[in-house]
Write a structure and sequence with these properties.
alpha+beta; Ribosomal Protein S5, domain 2; Ribosomal Protein S8, Chain: A, domain 1; 3 domains; eight-stranded mixed β-sheet; 22 strands
Length: 598
């Protein structure tokens, strides 16, 4: 008997579903792409229980006749390709013909579709890949697809779904992304019967972006001017360097209407900001690109999110130049007349990238960069705290603005201060040799233990006179709401303000932070990076907060010994919250050996 056999059609579709359908949001993605390809002007997405119970996508596109509707259930059935050459000229979002049969094979599936002008539409019912019923049905022009009990016949896949709120957040993210890609389409999203948003069709991409970002963030948008050449064009919007985040979740890129992710574009964004953003951080950006289909391969990933450019270096350089020009233009708007006379001019479109990047760097002097460890620049920034408590707070100052503090007789007394190395480490002398002291790691340990001490009785907080609004993506918003009690226990009272916006009402009293909004955003980024869908342990929350607080600590001569003394009052003074050392010693014996002495 032959060992090699052809897979049954249903099993083959379920295998394909493993590549195409990862979670409810994957279903929504595929159905939205089909709706946009069908020329829809309105799309309604409805989900229940995060999409595991029900996903329904209704559009007013071209619809299908009965024969085409039945054919759409067959694997590799598509209206978008006829011959091999078509693979090099794809302009549609979908083209493989795998989505519908794959989805139908792992759910209880129902489709109602009707062509414009048709007397009646067609209704198809599929149960786990088996066609159960086909009949005429009254229907409005367009297509409605209903997916119930996703993975009901593949329990191993269903087991890996996250909490309902997490899956719903992924669905919302997918709808928002496609709403940005197709601003000419009206998008509505309903979750468990409640309408989350209704985005009207707009003529400009900036209008759609402003609808999603909100008034406050939208006011800071920087336009990226159209840059075109060699069969490729790019334009879009940026946020200033102060909005840079640790991950790339706030970079949205669309190629010929398709949401994509690509390393060359990310590198281009970073190069365009060169000299104006902290290493390891990534700018927030929304870019729309158009490219001749022959110059890009979109058939390299089952979910079609990744692409392969034929000339990636040209794409990178074009993105970098467009971003650099956008930043130059924005900077020039704020320049004073003397600065303009000094020769800072917006670069022309034929200017090469090195020159544009050089001017960008000159516009961000080293002491003006948005460094995370910069001290509070002005006491007037205390205005976000209640006036009754402002006098009780101490803020870090720049080197030389305060007299040296006296050294406590314990802890730090066993060291002699020698100086500061590269504004990063404090150099000390001990009885055994040379010691390097890391103020960031020390502050992290101190803050971490303060949070642990307050876990049971609560962290002392400062209420804000004016609550701060923090706008988040749906997945980050879900993370905070799911772990609201953990944030509150750590002194961060974050309430839901509606529309994906949080309201920061209180802040830990002992944290010295110049910009609470950026601080909280960075903490949420750190927590998301470790698995945003899971419930956060308080210890993990404390580590994230301590890590961000430590980044604000400068290495300076005048405060080093006081900080060292405070460190030695901790239970574990020799390591930060993540295990990094706070002090590293080079013994005299080791130094002698390094210099060849015995």
């Amino acid at each position: 008997m032959s060992k090699i056999r052809i897979l049954p059609d249903i099993l083959a579709s379920q295998v394909a579903a493993g590549e195409v359908v990862e979670r409810p949001a994957s279903v929504v993605k595929e159905l939205l792409e089909n709706a946009v390809d069908a020329g829809a002007r309105e799309v309604l997405v409805e989900v229940e229980r995060g999409g595991s119970l029900l996903i329904r996508v209704t559009d007013d596109g071209c619809g299908m006749e009965k024969e085409d509707a039945m054919m759409s259930l067959e694997r590799h059935a598509t209206s978008k390709m006829r011959q091999a050459g078509d693979l090099h000229s794809i302009r549609t979002l979908g083209f493989r013909g795998e989505a519908i049969p794959s989805i139908a094979s792992v759910s209880r599936f129902r489709m109602v579709t009707c062509e414009k002008g048709a007397v009646a539409g067609t209704e198809l019912i599929v149960d786990g890949g088996k066609l159960k019923e086909v009949k005429d049905a009254g229907a409005a022009p367009g297509t409605m697809i209903e997916v119930k009990q996703l993975f009901f016949n593949v329990p191993a896949r269903r087991k890996f779904l996250k909490a309902e709120s997490t899956e719903a957040a992924h669905v919302e993210h997918e709808v928002r992304i496609h709403a940005l890609a197709a601003c000419q389409v009206r998008f509505r999203l309903r979750r468990d019967g409640n309408e989350l948003f209704d985005l009207p069709a707009v003529s400009g991409r900036g209008d759609r972006l402003r609808h999603l970002l909100g008034v406050e963030t939208s006011a800071e948008l920087i336009a990226v001017p159209l840059h075109a050449g060699n069969g490729f064009s790019v334009e879009g919007f940026l946020l200033p360097a102060a909005h840079a985040r640790k991950g790339r979740r706030h970079q949205c890129v669309f190629l010929n209407g398709r949401p994509i992710e690509d390393a060359a574009i990310s590198r281009g964004l970073a190069e365009g900001f060169k000299g104006g953003i902290v290493d390891g951080m990534h700018p927030a950006a929304w870019l729309w690109m158009e490219m001749e289909p022959q110059l890009v391969d979109v058939n390299v990933h089952p979910a079609k999110r990744e692409v392969r450019f034929h000339r990636p270096h040209e794409v990178r350089d074009a993105v970098a130049l467009a971003v650099a020009q956008g930043l130059l233009k924005e900077r020039r708007r704020h320049l004073t007349p003397p600065a303009e006379e000094a020769g800072l001019r917006v670069q022309q479109t034929n200017q090469d990238l090195p020159a544009a990047a050089g001017q960008i760097k000159s516009l961000f002097p080293r002491n003006a960069l948005p460094q995370q460890n910069s001290p509070l620049p002005d006491p007037s920034l205390r205005s976000w705290l209640p006036s009754a408590t402002q006098t009780d707070l101490s803020f870090p100052a720049a080197d030389g603005t305060r007299p040296p503090h006296s050294v406590s007789p314990s802890g730090a007394a066993s060291f002699r201060l020698l100086g500061v190395l590269s504004s990063r480490f404090v150099v000390l002398e001990s009885s055994d040799g040379l010691v390097l002291f890391d103020p960031r790691a020390a502050r992290e340990r101190i803050v971490y233990e303060r949070f642990l001490q307050g876990e049971q009785k609560g962290v002392e907080t400062q209420g804000l006179l004016v609550p701060i609004l923090i706008e988040l993506g749906p997945r980050e918003h879900e993370l905070v709401m799911r772990n609201h009690d953990r944030f509150a226990a750590a002194g961060l009272e974050l309430g839901d303000f509606g529309g994906g916006t949080l309201q920061l009402r209180s802040f830990p009293a002992f944290l010295q932070v110049a910009d609470p909004r950026s601080f909280v955003n960075e903490v949420i980024d750190d927590c998301s990076a470790g698995g945003g869908g899971a419930r956060l342990a308080y210890d993990r929350m404390a580590r994230a907060l301590a890590k961000r607080a430590g980044m604000n600590e400068l290495a300076r001569v005048d405060g080093a010994m006081v900080l060292l003394d405070e460190l030695f009052r901790c239970d574990l003074p020799y390591c930060a919250a993540d295990g990094r050392p706070t002090l590293t010693e080079f013994s005299l014996r080791e130094l002698e050996r390094r210099f060849g002495n015995r």
